[in-house]
Specification:
CATH architecture of one domain: 3-Layer(aba) Sandwich
Strand order of the largest sheet: 2-3-4-1-5
Helix content: 55-70%
CATH superfamily of one domain: P-loop containing nucleotide triphosphate hydrolases
Radius of gyration: 35 Å
Number of strands: 7
Mean pLDDT: 89
Strand content: under 5%
Length: 1004
């Protein structure tokens, strides 16, 4: 009987199950589990054959070590590989490799991804190739690549699997020994398991359920795995009859009942222990009779609790050393590496392998490598290594792995296990290089392990602070507390000082993490103090600018006007176009915007920052010199100064660049927020809601009520109010804690108190609104911030108190209009006038609203314009101008529909219906209206289609793919309300007429 069959028949795991070609062997006491396996595989394959895609499932097997989980996974693989077209992916966690980042995922995905044709590979990877490729070991990071955010890698893997699964469906993904999976793989697998039902994928996990069998680092994931919705099977011990069958199959029918009963009792029905004890019984030539049953317990101790002495007795010193080398390497063991690590000759290694296979310790896999028959054996052998031997062999393993061309990433696992205290500069250098490589694949925890080990070496005194700086930066995206602690140590005056440029950068990084944690005052102070001691002008300017930046984001400030004046002086003293000078200009532009200074001044500074409408080198979204706050300030400046198209271009660049860089945490969340805010200001409310909800989901994933969460919730509440969903907005605010005192230290974008007061006004809680808005105005006036778009407190306060204090309300409304006129944007003036009209009546209200509509019609604020039109229509109706009222209301409805402001549409229709007017405009759309909706590219396609030019020829004439032409034609037909036959008439074009211009040509 072969080793594989011996293991399978016991249900104790097999030495290799890679090819799925082994004959099916009956598993004892596993009938119900096998039925579940067959049903799961059959359901997947049948569902996919019937055209299903959202047919995934999760199957789990758990139990104590040696209970037979691996054997069941072998059966899953065998069954799946018998199905035509099925893709079977397999991986196994390793006790020695659970700190190797992406070790399990690389086993799973590397073979199938590397086997894809180049064109399919490009489609599957999409824009994530530079993120997922290096993490999965499919390519080297690009020269100059930045560190990857682990969440970005996980998001990239989500995308890749959604593209890969349908192309390789039905797909069965199997992970054995999940409890030893590396943290990076485990975090993705647990999240992917939740949504695997959306794909044609069967996930199969096998793991030990007991907490003590999971590494401390993965305990949180253990709870997540146990909470997954799955077909769960906890494997029980074998019954007496099955164990008796196994004993007699090995020792013959002469085995007595009493002996078999005691044997079963001793091994407690554990299949692995059955095999191990049978080996001992056979080696000792023990007769399976009742009088020998008392010796079984003693033999079982040697069989399952192998000590150094027992392994030496069984294998001999030379063979045991080879086994130690294999245990160090973990799974899929290369023979040549194990040979060199064990320092044996080729012939000696060959003899050791022969002995280890004979003793059922190792087996050979289909690719020629080695594996342990069972992970319990690998653990037993590794744990018998004397400490000095283990440390020395890890050093040899690190060197040999690097010499074999496998790189520092693979070698670093062994480097961190070597003996420290030698002060070896070569090891420190290698560990620092390995840390960089780990960060480039999105494995900051592995980088930190390398740098901690480098500090323990220890490094030379002159570079110790530098290693601390690197350690702090390695945790920048994942562990703010660790970053703060390490950077403070690196900046400690008692340590040998960092190089000046690194000291400036370390200070900026420290301030950045403090700011992201809400400690904006401390962040500003850290930069200010260091700037006073920095000799280099560029470094000093960077820190001074950073101090101004963090002060600008604070919730409250002791000397806001004074800081603004100092920033203005600094701005006036600038010369040159370097990044630091442009950074100061961006801050000043945002400062002027908040202060409500003339918009032209802020825009002039903002435009000076850009280079051809794009962010200049050194101030990019993923540039680490300044961080993403600087371009965010610039984007916000454009949003609040009615240059929303420019802001959208910047936000779109941010989303793409963060995605390409693999930065999927707060960076991408804030980019979504900026795009959502821009869409809201433009009046595209449905799109705004989508982007803001994405930002909110990311903020919830990162932590509780970070500044990003406040920003996203605030604008999302405002968006819901605009869409007429007042109760939903109120519920969201309550659920998210969006009410005083807001974030403890960071200001909310836009002003939280103004938004909350606006919400209370919408809920007709005027007393509470008045109190909140009065307090908001007081705080903003102290800082000198009078932007009525960012903080429209005065206009809404006027509405809240108008019923009780009409004169005071008029004063606040007039103040808002005055401040808006000083700022000078059309949307600010129009919105302030519209709010003022809410507290006036008759002709005065009409005049205010007519002026508001005129201003808002010149702005990109579509929703505000729609509200003003509806308000004006209602005001005109009240003064008896019904024809004018009807026209304004119709225009308001059309614009509100475009904005997805359903509540405003309903209000306008009700206004029309109440006075006998039609709630919808009667009449057909003029062809000129359709022409105005067509883009220039759609118009070019439409002209040719009217002339009877076929799509392929249109594509050739325009030099674009046929798919784009078809999409543009679909848009033309939809907007024109006609198919090809009636297109000419719908567009007001004579058929077959060539070389038509647009509307001007028709007028001619």
């Amino acid at each position: 009987m072969t080793e594989q069959e011996n293991a399978i028949r016991a249900g104790a795991g097999s030495a290799h199950e890679g090819d799925g070609t082994a004959p099916r062997v009956r598993l004892h006491d596993r009938d119900s589990e096998l039925r579940s396996v067959e049903a799961a595989v059959d359901q997947l394959c049948r569902g996919f054959a019937a055209g299903g895609t959202e047919i995934g499932d999760l199957l789990t097997f758990s139990g104590r070590p040696g209970i037979g989980k691996t054997s069941l996974l072998h059966e899953v693989r065998r069954l799946a590989k018998l199905r035509d077209g099925a893709t079977v992916l397999f991986a196994r966690g390793g006790e020695r490799q659970f700190k190797d980042p992406y070790h399990v995922l690389r086993q799973l995905l590397q073979p199938v991804l590397s086997d894809l044709p180049p064109d399919v590979f490009a489609q599957v990877m999409g824009t994530w190739e530079e993120v997922v490729g290096p993490a999965m070991g499919l390519k080297q990071p690009k020269a100059g690549a930045r560190r990857l955010d682990p969440q970005g890698v996980r998001d990239g893997l989500d995308y890749v699997l959604t593209q890969l699964a349908p192309r390789r469906a039905p797909m069965v993904m199997i992970v054995d020994d999940l409890h030893w999976a590396d943290g990076e793989s485990l975090s993705w697998l647990t999240k992917f398991a939740i949504r695997s039902s959306e794909l044609p994928v069967l996930l199969v996990f096998a793991f030990r359920e007991d907490e003590s069998d999971w590494p401390t680092e993965t305990q949180e994931f253990r709870r997540a795995v146990l909470g997954l919705k799955a077909r769960r099977h906890e494997l029980n011990r074998l019954n007496l009859s099955s164990v008796t069958d196994m004993i007699r199959a090995e020792l013959g029918d002469k085995a007595e009942e009493a002996f078999c009963y005691e044997f079963w009792n001793v091994v407690n029905g554990n299949p692995f222990e059955v095999i191990a004890l049978l080996d001992q019984v056979r080696d000792q030539e023990l007769e399976p009779v009742e009088e020998n049953s008392r010796q079984l317990r003693e033999l079982a101790v040697d069989a399952t609790g192998m000590t150094l002495k027992s392994w030496l007795d069984r294998l001999g010193a030379s063979t045991l050393r080879y086994a130690w080398a294999c245990a160090m390497l973990g799974t899929d063991i290369r023979v040549d590496l194990a040979t060199r690590i064990s320092t044996q000759s080729t012939e000696g290694a060959r003899e050791s392998i022969k002995q280890l296979r004979k003793q059922r310790v190792l087996t050979q896999t289909p690719n020629g490598n080695l594996e342990f028959v069972h992970p319990l054996i690998a653990s037993s052998i590794y744990n018998t290594m004397p400490d000095a031997t283990r440390l020395g062999m890890h050093g040899i393993a690190a060197a040999e792995i690097e010499n074999a061309g496998l790189g520092l990433l693979a070698a670093s696992r062994h480097l961190v296990e070597t003996h420290s205290g030698e002060g070896d500069d070569r090891i420190v250098k290698k560990l620092r290089r390995a840390a960089i490589e780990h960060q480039l694949i999105g494995a900051p925890e592995a980088a930190q392990r390398c740098l901690h080990r480098a500090l323990n070496e220890p490094p030379a005194d002159e570079i110790k602070a530098e290693v601390m700086y690197e350690l702090g930066c390695s945790a920048l995206l994942t562990d703010p507390v660790a970053t703060v602690n390490q950077l403070k140590l690196a900046l400690d005056p008692d340590e040998l000082p960092l190089r000046p440029e690194l000291r400036v950068d370390a200070t900026f990084r420290l301030s950045e993490v403090l700011a992201h944690a809400g400690e904006l005052g401390e962040a500003a102070l850290v930069c200010q103090r260091e700037a006073e001691q920095t000799v280099d002008p560029a470094g000093r300017q960077r820190l001074q600018a950073a101090s101004f930046m963090w002060h600008a984001f604070r919730k409250s400030e002791e000397d806001g006007p004074g800081r603004s004046a100092r920033l203005g002086e600094m701005c006036r003293s600038l010369n040159g176009k370097e990044a630091s000078a442009r950074a100061v200009l961006a801050m000043r532009a945002w400062d002027l915007t908040l202060r409500g200074a003339p918009s032209a001044e802020a825009l002039a500074l903002a435009d000076e920052v850009l280079d051809g409408g794009r962010l200049p080198k050194g101030l990019g979204w993923t540039d680490t010199t300044w961080g993403f706050e600087l371009p965010s300030m610039l984007c916000l400046t454009y949003i609040y100064n009615d240059r929303i198209a420019q802001a959208e271009r910047l936000a779109a660049d941010a989303i793409i660049q963060f995605e390409v860089a693999g930065w999927s945490g707060a960076h991408r969340g804030f980019a979504y927020f900026l795009m959502g805010l821009a869409r809201f200001r433009r009046g595209l409310l449905a799109e705004a809601e989508d982007f803001l909800r994405r930002a909110h989901r990311i903020s919830e994933r990162i932590g509780d009520m970070l500044p990003l969460a406040w920003d996203a919730v605030g604008v999302l509440v405002d968006t819901l109010l605009a869409r007429g969903r007042i109760d939903e907005a109120w519920q969201l605010a309550n659920d998210s804690g969006f009410h005083p005192p807001y974030h403890a230290t960071a200001m909310v974008l836009p002003d939280a108190a103004s938004l909350y007061g606006k919400l209370l006004v919408a809920k007709t809680r005027n007393a509470g609104a008045a109190a909140a808005l009065t307090e908001a105005g007081s705080q903003l006036e102290i800082r000198g911030w009078r932007n009525t778009v960012w903080a429209p407190w005065a206009g809404h306060l006027a509405i809240a108190i108008a019923g009780d204090e009409p004169e005071r309300a008029r004063e606040y409304a007039q103040k808002a209009v005055h401040d808006a006129r000083a700022f000078g944007t059309a949307s600010a003036i129009g919105s302030a006038l519209r709010l003022y009209a809410r507290i006036e009546h008759g002709r005065q209200a009409v005049e205010l609203l007519e002026e508001a509509v005129a201003y808002l019609g010149q702005s990109p604020a579509g929703y505000e314009h729609a509200v003003a039109l509806v308000d004006l229509g209602a005001a005109l109706r009240r003064v008896g101008r019904l024809d004018d009222a009807q026209e304004c209301l119709y225009q308001g409805i059309e614009l509100a529909q475009h904005c997805s402001a359903e509540g405003l549409v309903d209000r306008a229709r009700q206004e029309l219906a109440n006075y006998g007017l039609r709630p919808n405009r009667v009449g057909l759309r003029d062809f000129r209206d359709t022409l105005e909706t067509l883009s220039s590219s759609e118009w070019e396609v439409a002209k040719r289609a009217v002339q009877g030019v076929p799509p392929q020829r249109i594509a050739d004439e325009l030099g674009v793919p046929i798919g784009i032409v078809n999409r543009r034609l679909a848009a033309v037909y939809r907007k024109a309300g006609s198919g090809p036959d009636g297109l000419a008439s719908a567009l007001g074009l004579p058929p077959q007429q060539r070389d038509l211009g647009r509307l001007g040509d028709l007028n001619d």
